[in-house]
Amino acid sequence: METPTSTAEPMLWSGWGDPAKAADLPETLRTLLRDMLDVRAPETPAVSFGEVRLAPVTLSPLVLAELGAVVGAGHVRLDDDARVRHTRGKSTLDLMRVRAGDGSDAPDAVVLPGSHDEVLELLRLCAAHRVAVVPFGGGTSVVGGLVAARDGFAGVVALDLARLNRLISVDTESMTAEMEPGLRTPQAELLLAGHGFTLGHFPQSYEYATLGGFAAARSSGQASAGYGRFDDMVVGMTVATPRGTLDLGRAPKSAAGPDLRQVILGSEGAFGVITSLRLRVRRAPARRIYEGWRFGSFAEGSAALRCLAQEGPVPTVLRLSDETETMIGLARPDELGGLASDAGCLAIVGYEGFEEVKALRERAAAVLSESGGLPLGTEPGESWAHGRYSAPYLRDSLLAAGATVETLETAGFWSGLPRLHDAVRLSLRSSLGSPLVMCHISHVYATGASLYFTVVTAQSGDPLGQWEAAKRSASEAIVAAGGTVSHHHGVGRDHREAYAAEIGELGVEILRGVKDRLDPRGILNPGVLIAP
Ligand SMILES: Cc1cc2nc3c(=O)[nH]c(=O)nc-3n(C[C@H](O)[C@H](O)[C@H](O)COP(=O)(O)OP(=O)(O)OC[C@H]3O[C@@H](n4cnc5c(N)ncnc54)[C@H](O)[C@@H]3O)c2cc1C
């Protein structure tokens, strides 16, 4: 059993990430916002921490004492700091609400269990007292996955899994590691590095998101072409539910009926709390090379990526920015807003591995060249790798400057991708007037790919309503164009209606049936995934 030696700084309560890394807006971006989007400073600046309005704690002292008896009184927190930091997630809407002083979704208490058995006991108590429970990993949900419906409940607790942060064991022969859900990615990587392994999961939320959150929301990292999505990495898991324990995954693959792991993956805390994961690991690579390729158009670049995804060789990182994103420089955060003069679309192609990297790179280069790509060398790739986690810090500065910036993502089959790309852009433009809409192919498969959109627009007098309406219509456009409402962010509350449209009434009934069996009193994340 190994525990991490370092923990990251607590996340900024009103924005993203480590407060020490707050980013100023480059002058080029300020000009762009003013001249292109007519962005003006907001009339009301963000509130200070002390001005966030929290609802009074409704949980009775008796219930709080019982929770404390399970985890130890020091692990039940009622202070404003803990409550504010466990209010919602990190979507732009979440940030706007808290910056406006709205702490109405704050949990009554934050409870930190230290073992699977403690989680089981907490769930039993909360069911008995009808207390809603929000499993809380890194708090980086961008789909409203951390907001519980309060109606009919005696109160809400955030079940923070940070103390479940051990590497339990490594099976070097099977190349799997059993790890606890509260491990943040840097901690997990550090522990695995001690054994020469890596997970290879590098989402943009890398610094703060946890293993449990990745499994619960079916996350996908920036190197998914090579290492796979997080749900591909999960070979086993233990889940605490109000009805008892589920131990899933006794073999890598099985024909023994439907795979119940798939019921828990993506269930976003609505069916149970993941208390340990058995994960496939890879040997930590000795070589990493990232490079840039330019294509004449998004269509040409997409065809090249499809060719690699279908015929191989498949690089570890494979992404392609559309013309607008290439022009703004989003794929090269160090030069953001510099308005690249050469037209076309930038692809970032990365290789991680060992001796085979050289040959792989040569074979992939031949395919990319034959598909019309122009090699740009490693400089754009290194620039991308250097700035890959910095964009979320800029979002805070953009918000403060009066711009709404948000991302949304989908996936579809290759044949439907152009239609999906057009449909989302059209919908965002018709809702928002003249926003800046950028897109890249973020994850590729043999049969299709994921499209990841970044939208920047001037804030209206009601920025929350403005984005809610735009997001609703974009989700409808995605479903109508045959895409999925989420490739890797999950459902939460924000995508609930669109998800229901995607799976149909019968699909929702199946989920409701599972929930009723595992969580008969409906205490787990009420309102997330399916309507309460
Ligand atoms: C700036 C930014 C960048 C992002 N980039 C990416 C990206 O590149 N790729 C990507 O996939 N996602 C990305 N995300 C989304 C987010 O990081 C992922 O959804 C991630 O999986 C959430 O992990 P978390 O630990 O923060 O979970 P949380 O946000 O704490 O929880 C997410 C959901 O899972 C539930 N949950 C958490 N832990 C458990 C558990 N142990 N058992 C059961 N349920 C649990 C919660 O109740 C909630 O519904 C990004 C988010 C932000 C803010």
Structure description:
By secondary structure, the protein is of the alpha+beta class. Among the domains are: 167-282, Uridine Diphospho-n-acetylenolpyruvylglucosamine Reductase, domain 3 (2-Layer Sandwich); 287-387, 2-Layer Sandwich (Alpha-Beta Plaits), CATH 3.30.70; 392-480, GMP Synthetase, Chain A, domain 3 (2-Layer Sandwich), CATH 3.30.300. The protein contains 18 helices and 20 strands. The strands form five sheets. A seven-stranded antiparallel β-sheet has the order 17-14-16-15-19-20-18, with helices on both faces. A five-stranded antiparallel β-sheet has the order 7-8-12-10-11. Strand 19 (436-444) and strand 20 (448-458) form a beta hairpin. The longest helix is centred in the C-terminal third of the chain and has 23 residues, at 496-518. The protein starts with 26 loop residues before the first helix and ends in a 14-residue tail after the last helix. Bound molecules: flavin-adenine dinucleotide. Flavin-adenine dinucleotide (FAD) binds at residues 16, 89-90, 134-142, 145-146, 161, 181, 203-205, 209-210, 212-214, 216-217, 219-220, 268-269, 273-274, 392, 488-490, 525, 528. Residues 16, 89-90, 134-142, 145-146, 161, 181, 203-205, 209-210, 212-214, 216-217, 219-220, 268-269, 273-274, 392, 488-490, 525, 528 line the site of flavin-adenine dinucleotide.
